[in-house]
Amino acid sequence: MVTVYGNVTYNGENVQEGLTAIQVLNPSNKTIVLRTFPSGSISSSSWIVEVLSIVPCDLNGTPRDYFTRDSFAYFNITIRNNGITPKETLIVLNVFDFDLTPIGFSYIIMTLAPETSNTAIISVYLYDWVSTGTALACANAYTDWPKNQGYPYCPEKNASFNITSTSSSTLSTETLNNGGNYQGNFRIPPEVPPYSNVKGTYFVAVAAFYGGWTAFNNATFTVDYQYPEDFEPDGDIDIYDVVKVTSVYGSSGGLPGWNPQLDVQPDGEINIYDVVKVTSLYGTSY
User: Fold this and answer.
1) pLDDT, tens digit (0-9, with 9 covering 90-100), for 42-59
2) Can you give the C-alpha Rg of the chain in angstroms?
3) Domain containing 130 — which CATH number?
């Protein structure tokens, strides 16, 4: 789990009703997370550009509440320009599974006519490593990418849906709403070999918006790859790793003591598939 946090101030005082965008790019310069978090409480005032809703749907826009792995998930996003001039808007969709692992990221750039609502159907692909159960879709609108000093137009809109089947897991958006502070949590998503998109330096761009004022900052962090089956980790897949997964055999997401790290064949529970995946690598060193 990665936590990005900080505080926003104006004239030396913590901002009470601001917005903060967090953009995270992986070592291949691909955006894996872009979300908006409140700095303090969310203002009740109207926004120039506003995300009105996000609804899981099929390709034709018919609402649905579940999707299967190895298929596309579609989301109908409604957005409105409340202003009196056209607004070029970056509309972003982020999808996360129940433990806040990024599943997919999509975006479109749309010019919104004044005082008009528009809809867009945006999709992400649900790969076979995605966990089943409850998932979260997040819709946001920006003037531009935070890395390019774009800032959020409005608060985020969320929608929950299910992958394959309903899970008892409880999903948290992982936000902190103290005045002037912001916080966003996410996990590093798995990748296929040679893991070039996981290991290396990640770039974080942050953009704050408050009362017409903007501010920007950035940071980096580094991730060293380890085999998911190396639970210790110590560079070896050995008996300790086998014991660790077999000791929680039968546990599932949402139950006390659940550890998604041990669900190496992600399906929301620790079962024979996870045990086989670990034992098949027994003796591997890296």
Assistant:
1) 877 789 999 999 999 999
2) 20
3) 2.70.50.60
